[in-house]
Amino acid sequence: MNYLAHARQHLDDPYFVAGTALPDWLNVVARKVRVRRRHAAPFEADSQAPLAAIARGVLQHHHDDAWFHRTPAFAQLSLEMTVRVREALPGDEGMRVFFLGHILVELLLDAELAGQDPQLLPRYYQALARVDPGEVAGAVRRMSGWGAEPLAELIPRFIAERFLWDYADDDKLLWRLNQVMQRVRLSPLPHRLTEIFPAARLAVSRQTTQLLTPDPPNVPA
């Protein structure tokens, strides 16, 4: 899952929302630092409310990813996206193709959710605007022992940039994907990749419910 899918049901709890984003934020500013379930669990009932909410958000993030990546819809769509990417980029047989097949499903799901409910993205960013970045950095220090100053600097930039809106536009989506490629040290993507985006959007739209339904259905989401 990506940012909005993780947070969409918790937008009235800003620090919980920040917690759902925290593992992905750390991938941006400190790829070697991880806040896993075992790091967050001791703090989910902490007497400091922001720390407890952040810890619960981290736990929600990991719980969501565990069931989301097991859904038949995700398996089908990520394979379909991989095939589409390979056809658009003939000769590219490396890990980039499989990586794109995975993240395209997640980014396009966020775009679909935002399109279905125009209030979701404004509410998401409004929630994060109520968060003290220092509190989030402090929570990471408690959970991981890492200094976390770069994280406190990232959060205001993340809010100001509002890049989740860009996923609705094919050219801007490509631009954002190339930022990811640069961060993970993969080669940039050509503009012709945008030719697959309309059909990819439609495929994700048709399976949004299945993507957001744990399998088996009685697994709590």
Outline the fold blueprint.
Layout lengths: L2 H5 L6 H16 L7 H4 L8 H20 L3 H17 L6 H22 L3 H10 L3 H12 L4 H13 L8 H14 L13 H10 L1 H4 L10
Helix pairs in contact: 2-4, 2-7, 4-8, 5-6, 6-11, 8-9
Question: How would you summarize what this structure contains?
Answer:
67% of the residues lie in helices and 0% in strands.
Overview features:
single chain, 221 residues, mainly alpha, 12 helices
Describe the 3D structure.
It is globular, with a radius of gyration of 17 Å. It is built from twelve helices and no strands. The model has no long low-confidence stretch (mean pLDDT 94). With 221 residues, the chain is mostly helical. Helices cover 67% and strands 0% of the residues. The chain has one domain.
Q: Give the strand content.
A: under 5%
Low-confidence stretches: none
Structural class: mainly alpha
Give me the number of helical elements.
Answer: 12
The rough form would be described as: globular
